[in-house]
Design brief:
The complex is a heterodimer of chains A (198) and B (388).
Chain A: H1 2-21, E1 27-34, H2 37-49, E2 55-58, H3 66-69, H4 76-102, H5 115-141, E3 165-170, H6 178-186, E4 192-197
Antiparallel strand pairs in A: 1-3, 1-4, 2-3
Chain B: H1 2-33, H2 35-66, H3 69-72, H4 75-82, H5 85-91, H6 93-97, H7 99-102, H8 108-113, H9 115-120, H10 126-156, H11 161-188, H12 201-224, H13 236-267, H14 270-279, H15 284-303, H16 306-310, H17 312-334, H18 347-369, H19 379-386
Helix pairs in contact in B: 1-2, 1-18, 2-4, 2-11, 2-12, 2-17, 2-18, 4-18, 5-10, 10-11, 11-12, 12-13, 12-17, 13-15, 15-17
The chains are: A alpha+beta (198), B mainly alpha (388).
């Protein structure tokens, strides 16, 4: 019995020591849990104002303006526009090249460069270029597919897909300092502030 | 509630009525001086203002079926515009006296030499033309009356029966709308050219009408929204949603307009291409360039921007341009038939447009004033405004 008690005590102690000596190498960041989206929005704005940049918000549903508050720039619209224009231009060029230069055919006496006939394909490839870019860029730029994410080390995190809102300031941020960041997050009136292991 | 609109639109609507009546008197003069031109101009004006009312009624029905935040703030505008349809029907009466000036199937000398027109005689005859117009205006007016009546009932009761009836009408109503448009626009516009037909045309007309109705309510919301009780329920999102709809309908209009061109261009048949040949002859070509730029490309690229859609002044400016472009579109759809060699603008074009428009706007404003601007007792409205 006595033996067993010691074991438990030492495991407990090791756990405690582990938390104390956990360095930035094994720490993903500090996560604050909020009950409302407004709480998270306020926290994100204040964190950004304090100079934190490497951070992310986790919410059960999309929140308008959160990305902006976190300082994330969304490059997808511009990329989609460029890809759409590129798709349209290349389609028109392809058709023009095929019917005027490479393989001219007399079709019902129409001019070789008959633009109305080229428009449907131009339209289709504009849409194709734009939609494929939107799909792959939203996957790629958000880092998907991602089989492992440190946030799942946090037991409470499963509620991020139900009714809780998380803000995680990552240890990789140059401003990050465990005690200071912790006290900052606690000042934002969260439910909990937890360390997230890598 | 009534006072807030009276201060804002009361005087302006009476000025509109004055201008409208004066212009209609000028039109009356035009009827005696140059009847053919009068009927051309009057038909354009009639089709333009009919489009605003019908487009608004179509949106009203869509909103009863789908709900959504975009429609609450502008529902009263839709209803007031739909309620003008009986008036547009009354204003249609002069056209019935001008059939012989407008339509080749009613000109005996044209019919005598054209076998196609002779074959169309059983359908395209003056009495049958009038009967069809009366029936279709009857259907539209009846629908607009029911939608306003039930909506008024809903304002006074917490029972949801009127709302259910409105939704039951809206489904079939949205089927009736393009069908009736097909019937009357074959008569009023397509049969202007003796042999021309296009199966795409009625849908194109519907999209144009909805586009002009939407542009009209966006302009109106940007103007009176912030100055009345509507300001409590509108925000940037309302303009954003309406802007997105405007973009969608701009694209749909362009898609249909181009599809019609592509089908006719590919077929390359004499009786079909004449319609386009008349519409690119001489100065008409520049009208077409204007339409391509201001009915599609300009608004399309501007409305892609989220920032533009959320800025009410910018969005209202685009809606204004679209509204004008649509008027030009209707004019370009009708007038070149009579002037196939080149651009022709008449003072009667303006007199008829402002005449019908002034009277229309006055009755629209009066319809709008009789009801509170914010819809009441619709449970989905409460959900839409609280879940911001």
């Amino acid at each position: 019995m006595r033996m067993r008690y010691d074991w438990e005590l030492s495991i407990c102690l090791m756990g405690f020591m582990g938390r104390v000596i956990m360095t930035n190498d094994s720490l993903h960041g500090l996560a604050a849990e909020f009950e409302t989206d407004a709480g998270l929005m306020r926290a994100a704005e204040q964190a950004y104002a304090l100079g934190y940049r490497k951070m992310d918000g986790y919410t059960p549903f999309p929140i308008e303006g959160l990305g902006k508050a976190l300082g994330k720039t969304n490059r997808i619209p511009l990329l989609v526009l460029l890809a759409g224009i590129l798709g349209g231009c290349s389609a028109y060029f392809m058709e023009w090249f095929a019917s005027v230069i490479s393989y001219p055919l007399n079709i019902g006496g129409r001019p070789l460069h008959s633009w109305p006939a080229f428009i449907p394909i131009t339209f289709e490839l504009t849409v194709l270029g734009a939609s494929l870019t939107a799909f792959f860029c939203s996957l790629g730029l958000s880092g998907l597919p991602q089989p492992y994410h440190p946030m799942f080390n946090l037991p409470e995190f499963e509620r991020a897909s139900q009714d809780r809102f998380f803000l995680c300031i990552e240890a990789a941020d140059p401003q990050f300092d465990t005690p200071r960041t912790r006290s900052f997050l606690e000042s934002l009136d969260p439910l909990t502030v937890k360390e997230v292991a890598k | 509630m009534k006072g807030e609109l009276e201060a804002l639109v009361g005087r302006r609507s009476r000025i509109a009525l004055g201008v409208g009546v004066a212009c209609l008197l000028l039109c009356l003069l035009g009827w005696f001086v140059n009847p053919r031109q009068f009927f051309i101009s009057y038909l354009v004006a009639e089709v333009v203002w009919l489009g605003v009312g019908l487009g608004c009624m179509a949106f009203l029905m869509i909103h009863y079926l789908t709900g959504g935040k975009w429609g609450w703030a502008v529902r009263r505008f839709f209803e007031a515009a739909a309620k003008t349809l009986p008036l547009v029907g009354l204003l249609f009466i002069p056209i019935c006296f001008g059939i012989h000036y407008l339509y080749p199937w009613a000109m005996p000398d044209r019919v005598a030499v054209d076998p196609v027109l002779r074959h169309k005689q059983p359908y395209l005859s003056v009495p049958f033309f009038v009967i069809r117009a009366v029936i279709v205006f009857g259907i539209w007016s009846w629908m607009a009356w029911l939608m306003n009546k039930w909506s008024r009932e809903q304002d006074e009761t917490l029972d949801l029966a009127p709302l259910k009836r409105l939704r039951k009408l809206s489904g079939p109503g949205l089927v009736i709308y393009p069908l009736t448009i097909t019937v009357v626009f074959v008569d009023w516009v397509m049969s202007l050219e003796a042999d021309w037909y296009s199966t795409m045309f009625p849908v194109l007309v519907c999209m144009g009408q909805m586009l002009s109705g939407l542009a009209f309510v966006i302009l109106l919301l940007a103007w009176i929204g912030p100055r009345t009780s509507l300001s409590e329920i509108i925000g940037k999102e309302n303009f954003h949603h309406l802007g997105s709809l405007l973009l969608a309908f701009t694209m749909l209009w362009a898609y249909l307009a181009f599809s019609q061109l592509l089908v006719i261009w590919s077929g390359d048949l004499p009786h079909e291409i004449s319609w386009y040949l008349h519409r690119i002859a001489g100065g008409w070509r520049w009208v077409l360039v204007f339409l391509v730029l201001f009915h599609f490309f300009g608004p399309f690229f501007l409305l892609l921007s989220r920032q533009v859609k959320r800025t009410e002044r910018a969005l209202a400016a685009i809606a204004g341009v679209m509204f004008i472009a649509h008027i030009v579109d209707v004019w370009w759809m009708i007038t070149p038939t009579f002037y196939p060699h080149g651009l022709h603008v008449s003072w009667l074009d303006f007199a008829a447009f402002f005449g019908v428009g002034g009277v229309w706007l006055f009755f629209f404003a009066r319809n709008l004033e009789t009801r509170p601007l914010v819809p009441m007792n619709d449970p989905r409205f409460a959900v839409a405004t609280t879940a911001v």
